[in-house]
Each structure stands twice: as C-alpha cells, then as structure tokens.
Amino acid sequence: MKIQMVYLVHFHDLTGKDEEELDVDIVNVNELIDHLEDKYPGMGKLLRKEDGSAKPNNIAILNRKGERAHFVKDFSIKLNDGDHVTLI
Amino acid sequence: MFGWSGCILRINTSDGTVKRTDVGDDLRREYIGGRGLATKLLYDEVGPDVDPKGPDNKLYMTLGPLTGTPLSACRMTVTTKTPRNGFLHDGNMGGFFPAELRFAGYDGLVLEGSSEKPIYIFIDDDKVSFHDASHLWGLSVTDTHIKLREELGDPSIRTIIIGPAGENEVNAAVIIGDLYHASGRGAAGRVMGSKKVKAIAVRGTKEIPIFDPDGFMEVYNDFWKELSPDDCIDIYHRPWGVAGDSLATDYIKTVGGLAVKNDQGFDEEVSSFNIGSATIRKLLVRPMSCFSCGLPSCSQLIAHGNTVLKMHTGSIIGLGSNFGITDINEIMELHKIWTELGLDVSVSPTISWAIEAYQKGLITKDDTEGIELKWGDSNIIKKLVHKLVYKEGQFGELMAEGLKALTEKYGGHDFALHVKGLDITLVPSRSMYGMGLAYAVNDQGADHCRIYPPYPPNIDAVPQHIELPFDVEKAAIRDIPDEKAKLIKWSFDSRAILNCLTTCVFLSRGKLFSDFSYFGRALTAATGVQYTHDQLMKIGEKICNLERSYNVLNGNASRKDDTLPKRYLNEPFKAGGSIGMVVPLDRMLDDYYKERNWDLASGRPTQQKLSELGLDFVVEDFKNKGVWSQ
Hints:
The complex is a heterodimer.
Chain A: E1 2-7, H1 10-15, E2 19-23, H2 29-39, H3 43-47, E3 60-63, E4 70-72, E5 84-87
Parallel strand pairs in A: 1-5
Antiparallel strand pairs in A: 1-2, 3-4, 3-5
Chain B: E1 8-12, E2 17-21, H1 25-31, H2 34-45, E3 59-62, E4 76-81, E5 88-93, H3 97-103, E6 108-112, E7 119-124, E8 127-132, H4 141-152, E9 158-161, H5 164-167, E10 175-177, E11 181-183, H6 188-194, E12 197-203, H7 213-226, H8 237-243, H9 246-254, H10 267-272, H11 277-283, E13 284-288, E14 299-304, E15 307-311, H12 313-318, H13 328-341, H14 348-359, H15 365-368, H16 378-389, H17 393-401, H18 403-410, E16 418-419, E17 422-423, H19 433-441, H20 472-475, H21 484-501, H22 517-527, H23 533-555, H24 566-570, H25 585-596, H26 607-612, H27 616-625
Parallel strand pairs in B: 1-6, 7-12
Antiparallel strand pairs in B: 1-2, 3-4, 3-6, 4-5, 7-8, 9-10, 9-12, 10-11, 13-14, 14-15, 16-17
Helix pairs in contact in B: 1-2, 2-21, 2-23, 7-22, 13-16, 16-17, 17-18, 19-21, 21-23, 21-25
C-alpha cells in the first residue's frame, strides 16, 4: 500500500525529508514504524517506549480520506492504502 | 517592600504632569499585579460614563512582582476600555520593555488625558520627560525606534511605539515593543494614538528587592527541572523549542482546520498550502527570545531580503492562506508592512471578509473605489490595508472600525469572522471545540491566548498529588463537547494568574501546567506574602469574574455576546481532517455558565458567586444598575 508520510522538526532532522510517499507491504502502524526504523535508524526510539507502546511526546497523526484526523496512541491500528501519517 | 516596587507612574498627557501613586497592600496582595491589578484599576477608574475614544479613557501597562526576575517574567499587561464596544480589553506584551520599566522602579504606568500635539515620553529611572514628536508622527515603527535611540543618545533604551495605524485611531492598531513584540489588538494602539503619544522610551537601573533570595533560587531551579521536555505535559515542548510556533501551522493544517480564503473550508486549497515549520526553519537567522526566556524560542527571526522578520503562525495563516497567498516571500512582505504600520495581523478577517463580500456581490467597485477584490493577490491586499490604515474613503473608514461596522452597512454577517467585534485569530474553532468555546466566552472577544495548547497532553506527566477539575482525556478530544466547559474555566482562571505575575505562558508547559504551587512559592520568596495553589486559582477566578462584570456594567454584556461567527456554527467542513465539524456552542455555553455559577439565561455572574469571591463592591454596583432585574 501507499502511505504518504510528513516529517516535522525532529523527524525531519532524522530523515532529512519534509515528506515522502512509501510503497510498503504492511498492515498497521507498528509495522510502519519497523519499516521506518530500517530506513532511518533511531525512528523506533523516537516513537516507542521500551514496552513498545506509544511515547506520549512524539505522537503520529493519521489522516484518512473521509475521516477526521486523529492522534495514534495505539500502534496496532490498521493502515489503509492512501493514508497520510504526520510525525511531529 | 519586597517584590513589588510600590509605585504606579501616572502620566497625564493633557497637562504634562506626573504622579507616583501606591495602590496599597490590600489591593496589591489581592490582585498581585499585571492583569489583575489593571482590571481592578480600570473597574474603579474608567466607568460607564467614560467615552473610550475620549481623553478620560486610560491606558494601563502593569507589571507583576516577578517581572524582571529570571523566571521568564518578561511581560506586561496592556489594558484599556476598548473603543470597539466599551468592553475591557487587555493585551500581553513580551520583549524587553516590561523588565526595563520594572528596573526603572515601577509596578506599572497609566496614560491619562490627551495631548494636543504628538509627544513621546522618556522614563529614565525617576526622571520622566516629555518631548515633541511632531517629526516622528507618520513614521514607521522601525524608523521611530531608530530615531528615538539616536535622539536620546542611548542605544540600549527600550521602546513601545505606535505606527500610523495607532496615529489614525484604527481599531486594529497595536503597540509594538522593541520592534518585534506587539500587544493590545483590542484597540490599545488606537487609545495610545488618541492621546497623541507616539512612543515611550525607558531606561532602568534599579534592582528588584527579593524577600528570600535563597528560597527564590531554590524555586528557580525547580522551575527549570519541571520544564524537562522528556517529562513534560505539553507533548510538543521539544519541537516547539526548535521550530517555534510555526509548528502550529503544521498542526492546524494536519487536523484540517487551516483557514483558507476567509476560512471557507476549501480542503483542496488546504492541501496545496505548504508553508509551515519546514519553510521557516530554512529561512531561520536565529531564535527570537524575550527577557529571561525559559525556552529556546517561541518564534524565530527569519531572513527577508537584507533584513529580518519575526514571524508567527498568525502571519503565515492570516496573511497567507486566509488571503489565498501561497508564496512565503509575499507573506513576509505583507508581514513587514503590517508591523511597520503598527497593525495587528489578526485584522486579516476584515480584509478577507471584504474579498468574499465582493465576490458575493455585497460590495462593488464603487465601494472599493475601483479596486477589484480577488484572492491570492498581495498587491490588492496592500491597497486594502493602505485604505484601512489611512481611512481612505468611506470603505477605508469602515474597515478601520472593523467587521461590525462593515456588516452593519453591507450585511454579510454570516461570514464575518469576529467575536465581540474582535477579529478571529484563525486558530481554528471548528476543528477544536474547546477553542470555539474559548473564543465565544472570552470577555475581550476572539482571543486564543487564554487556553492551553489544543492537543492531547502527556497525562503521565501530571503530578500525582494534583487533582485537575476535569477529565483530562475527554477534555483533549477535539471533536466532542464533553469537559470543554471545565477545561476552559480552569484555563481562563489559571491563565489569569500567569498574566498577573507576569510570566511567559510557555513557562507553564511542564508540570506547572497543572501545579501552580511553584508560582506560589516564587511569589512568596519574592514578596514575603504567602500564596498557595488554591489561593492563586481563586484569585484567577476572581479576576475573570471582575472582567465579566466590567463588561456587564460598561457594555451591557450578556449571553448574546458569547457567540461565534455563523460560519463556525452552521458550515461544516466538507472534507479533510475536520470533516463534518461545526461548533456545538449552545451545549458548551450552558455547561460553562454552570461551571462558573453564572446565570444560564444572561451569562452574568450571580450574587452568590460574586460574594463568594469577595467582590461585594460589584454586587452593589449590579444592584444599583438593576443588572439582575433586567
């Protein structure tokens, strides 16, 4: 599926990018983070606590067509083709 | 005396006399300083019979007992009776002028009367001198600042200045401190202009007496520990420190609330607006701070040709997306014009209303004197703002008065983006119901500054011993009305305290967000007077009730004034991250009045609440005016 990523501030500094489109074979946000960790080492530590749950001070916002944007606190949430994920 | 200076400087601009007065221990302890002190003085001294446009109105600039100390206490309150509607207005200015005024030995200054000719005032510690400002009248803010420093022979003086907008008594005129720090968009610049005061310069060399220096240093160290970004209630404390408030543009866009073309909610337009923190960081010259700043920055100086600008998200949205302008260079050019004219950026909705009204046929080229109004053209915006500031023609006169005046003549109320006559600052209300309620019930109108950041907090960082008076998780959900009234009451009360001290509001991003005992300890160490968390919250509530009471007595304020533009109540977003959202205001208003123990039908404080807060003098005034029998 295709996921549109937006990287702000520290995530921009880590990736060197403002945004990019990912074409990935993943199911949920956790797998997206795994993918990003492979691509940009250190990404996982920015987003996850040691127990794998979401860090409270680096939260992803999910935008999906036809739905309201919301903060992703549960990384097991499923992703759809065309989703936008903003990392602030 | 410790903490306070014990001296309010009263400057009569009519006859050039100066008085030094003391408000007394009781009032000082009860209202602390800053916003609390100014509100009480305004209530006592500027009543319903005072014409806010006339010489009997007063302009208060008040400091707190912490101002000038290293606790990010860099601010002052700017208060007056606003010519917009006779309500109270207060602004909050940072920078360096407030601390310098404190070092000159004052808890505040009051401008009274009205000079016959333009003047500027120089406060050099105890010495106050008046100077002819005829040669400065009409100059831009920067040119005035440079000339003042040359004339007074001191490159380090601090200044507050009005631009041509204030001189011409435009409602959206602000006062600019040290070139970059604006305040008083509720017409404080207009009031200063009506007194013919172009500028005030200050030099102070005195010390601030601290009651318990060791205790003060102890709480000083605790403050910074509490602001650790790793364990901070504000989830965006760290990125804010890097990107400043331009980050807010990104956040607002992401949740679908970016104002585009008078906030009409065109999602495809939102998607194509790509100016945000990344843009600003590429232009960054250096972070921009105020006196004793506790954060890396809340804003940045960015490169603009061979000069620099201090940009906030208000400019990016107000002068960019809301006009349909997507070129950062054009936005910066408009920002520079706005600042030099001494005009608030949030007058944007007045101009965007004009463009939408033109497109809907409510106004024509005959009204605009030949200007064809359309989106995305910065040259048209420049022509309109020139008309507004210099009151060119009837249309210019009406724009200078603001949206209420424009809509009374032309209609178009439904898309006039103001509350109580004050233009919306374009932090979205449809996308964040808490912000919608905050705009509606704010006693000075559409002001976003009395609410904490409208995104989920780090609940883990709330101290265990603190029991907040609302469900934090529900309050943070932006698209439900639940808990918003409790959140807004608590935000307003606690923000009033910060405005009394007068510390930077960003200082409250750590655990201090919830625990005001730190501020109590700082106050006690500075003044020797005991203040606890609970006492401070009560003082905050008292100030909010006094402000509302002022508006009731001076502007007949009631529930009808606590509203939002129809666009935000009736026009849901058709797409994007806030799809379907409009503000469920009535439900939240009822909840808010109940939380405040105010009358549900009128939105006014009850006798029981006023007495409980020790505002018996207001009870008497309400009875004498028949407020409760209306």
